[in-house]
Structure to design on (705 residues):
């Protein structure tokens, strides 16, 4: 094999493709040839690296120069300057945005910047996701080999328990414990399911893992199957994620060919078959029992729990259901040990968390940082400050089913325990940052509209409650609210939480509770003064006195 | 994907082909409906009846599954389907203004099909490309960082 002196990567996430990444790629290939450099330079496509503001990106290693947005007409200049003459083509570099607004550091963190720490996204954006060879060179399938040749199933589970890994889908349930439930459940047949039905608004972390590093999920699921005693698995992936689906199917074929999946894996006598099951557009299918119903070919309506899937899951057999990000943590923990994993994050929440940063900040995108970073730090460092130097008014954490938190909670460390103490749901890791131009009533209305649209309709509190709450919020936003509405919203939030069958209805009340707890004055202004302080709501129902 | 209507004998033939492809297994009902949706544009009553007969599942149950999932149509759509993201991250990033402009530009309301049969307008929950909100999909194409003034050029690309 010839040694290549440079590696050129082109981003191929959906947005990059839409903006001509394929044309840029073929132009690059052509120009590299025309300069006679094809033996010295490798060229491949990689998934999103979290800089979608400048897509499509061209990244050149070893210098790690990021160019973007790159157009086909820029390619010749880029190849000539950087790859032929060895000078960085600075005019094509992706813009770096200046930090604006005031940054207040936490006292004990003064002068230090919490750097990104990539564990689950370590390979995303670095390797060619369609190449199993790339994955293997980057330690791929090492953890599976170790598990099957050196460890008993209970050793794997104990290691996960020691690591303190918690489920990254939102609920934060200890992963090792869940695995031990399935392992000890009685049954002649067991299943492992990867929940890749990522539909929480503002969340796309699982998409980047699946698109950028599909083999890591296959490896993790095979390890999980070995640990709990399953021989069949499903990846339930939302229907909209077509690229991720295609990459998974390709990765499964490759893994089978190499003997990492199928019969007698690594000559250990262990068998595992893996299927990909596409969703058809239903947010509720992210709920694990609804997901199981959907795999069985039915409406995605959640089952009453208990019994839990760990004993009565798919086809009524013991079933392990884990989120994509949770699974992606498994191979690194097996390779490097529980102590290594616990060296990141906080004692109660070890490891890293992938966050998506959205809303009124200068740089939106995705980061993977250790547990315990604060919102203020995320906005200042990774969000590059608030847009137009505006002030932070509120943030909405964890997608629609998370919490609306006011600016004065921005210094709470983001880990499971600290957030639980502050009454905030960590959720899926979406951080929607909102400036003064956001109206709390309008935001709650949008969130409740989402639940109204996505409610499966099986239980009354959720089906009727969300409909009713939406009507009340609409009335308030049109200047037709009454003070009695506030009481109604309060009890509705309580009823949704206490009486709904599943997580969707239970969390739907959160935005109602949060706006009344933190932004009551603003809601009352809509009712008493018939005014929207943020100037967002149309107040169209108000007749102006002449 | 441009949607065309099929003659009824083709509907039966298509249903049979797809049902056979999945060996008429009841747990494959959703993949079967998704594939038929793609090939037929929507699940007509004729298609429903045939699926029910071939798979030995009551029509009411087939319909209840088909109508549950947003990506499966139980009504005919226009030639091009717009899915506009209505979720909070797109909303606060300027989605509200763009959404109003879309309805004005096409002169249709959500869930409606234009009189000439060209456009169907739908809202959708998160499409998973939130870093570039506001976002909409036209057929299989994703458009991000939308502003109201980009809309006429985008819509003009579709015949």
């Amino acid at each position: 094999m010839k040694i290549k002196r440079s590696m050129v990567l082109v981003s191929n996430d959906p947005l990059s493709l839409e903006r001509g990444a394929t044309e840029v790629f073929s132009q690059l290939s052509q120009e590299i040839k025309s300069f006679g450099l094809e033996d010295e330079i490798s060229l491949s496509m990689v998934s999103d690296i979290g800089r979608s503001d400048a897509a499509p990106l061209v990244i050149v290693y070893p210098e790690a120069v990021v160019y973007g947005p790159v157009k086909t007409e820029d390619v010749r200049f880029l190849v000539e300057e950087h790859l032929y003459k060895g000078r960085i083509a600075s005019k094509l570099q992706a813009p770096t945005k200046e930090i604006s607004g005031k940054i207040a550091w936490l006292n004990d963190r003064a002068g230090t910047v919490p750097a990104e720490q990539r564990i689950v996204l370590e390979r995303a954006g670095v390797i060619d996701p369609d190449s199993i060879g790339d994955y293997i060179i980057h330690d791929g399938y090492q953890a599976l080999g170790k598990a099957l040749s050196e460890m008993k199933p209970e050793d794997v589970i104990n290691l996960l328990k020691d690591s303190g890994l918690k489920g990254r889908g939102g609920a934060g349930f200890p992963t090792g414990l869940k695995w031990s439930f399935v392992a000890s459940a009685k049954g002649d047949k067991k299943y492992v399911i990867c929940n890749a039905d990522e539909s929480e608004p503002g969340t796309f972390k699982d998409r980047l893992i699946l698109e950028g590093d599909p083999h890591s999920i296959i490896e993790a699921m095979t390890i999980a199957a070995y640990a709990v005693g399953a021989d069949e698995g499903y990846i339930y992936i939302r229907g909209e994620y077509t690229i991720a689906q295609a990459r998974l199917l390709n990765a499964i074929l490759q893994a089978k060919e190499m003997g990492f999946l199928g019969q007698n894996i690594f000559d250990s006598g262990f068998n595992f078959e893996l299927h990909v099951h596409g969703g058809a557009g239903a947010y509720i299918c992210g709920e694990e029992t609804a997901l199981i119903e959907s795999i069985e070919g039915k409406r995605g309506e959640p089952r009453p729990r208990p019994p839990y899937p760990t004993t009565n899951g798919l086809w009524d057999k013991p079933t392990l259901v884990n989120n994509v990000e949770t699974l992606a943590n498994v191979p690194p923990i097996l390779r490097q040990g529980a102590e290594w994993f616990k060296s990141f994050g906080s004692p109660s929440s070890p490891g890293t968390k992938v966050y998506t940063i959205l809303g009124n900040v200068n740089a939106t995108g995705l980061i993977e940082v250790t547990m315990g970073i604060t919102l203020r730090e995320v906005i200042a460092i990774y969000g590059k400050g608030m847009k137009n130097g505006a002030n932070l008014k509120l943030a909405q954490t964890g997608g629609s089913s998370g919490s609306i938190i006011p600016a004065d909670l921005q210094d709470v460390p983001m880990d499971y325990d600290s957030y639980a103490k502050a009454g905030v749901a960590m959720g899926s890791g979406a951080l929607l940052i909102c400036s003064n131009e956001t109206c709390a009533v309008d935001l709650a209305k949008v969130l409740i509209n989402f639940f109204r649209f996505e409610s499966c309709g099986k239980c009354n509190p959720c089906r009727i409650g969300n409909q009713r709450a939406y009507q009340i919020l609409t009335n308030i936003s049109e200047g037709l609210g009454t003070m009695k509405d506030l009481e109604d919203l309060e009890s509705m939030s309580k009823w949704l939480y206490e009486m709904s069958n599943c997580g969707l209805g239970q969390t739907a009340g959160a935005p109602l509770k949060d706006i009344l707890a933190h932004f009551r004055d603003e809601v009352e202004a809509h009712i008493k003064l018939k005014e929207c302080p943020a100037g967002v709501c149309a107040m169209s129902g108000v007749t102006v006195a002449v | 994907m441009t949607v065309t209507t099929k003659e009824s004998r083709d509907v039966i033939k298509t249903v049979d082909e797809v049902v056979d492809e999945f060996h008429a297994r009841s747990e494959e009902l959703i993949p079967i409906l998704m594939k038929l949706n793609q090939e037929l544009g929507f699940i007509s009553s004729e298609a429903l009846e045939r699926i029910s007969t071939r798979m030995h599942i009551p029509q009411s149950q087939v319909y209840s599954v088909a109508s549950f999932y947003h990506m499966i149509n139980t009504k005919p759509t226009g030639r091009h389907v717009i899915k506009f993201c209505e979720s909070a991250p797109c909303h606060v990033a300027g989605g509200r203004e763009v959404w109003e402009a879309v309805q004005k530009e096409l002169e249709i309301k959500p869930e409606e099909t234009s009189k000439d049969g060209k456009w169907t307008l739908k809202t959708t929950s998160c499409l998973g490309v939130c870093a570039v909100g506001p976002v909409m999909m036209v057929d299989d194409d994703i458009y991000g960082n939308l502003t109201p003034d980009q809309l006429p050029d985008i819509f003009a690309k579709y015949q």
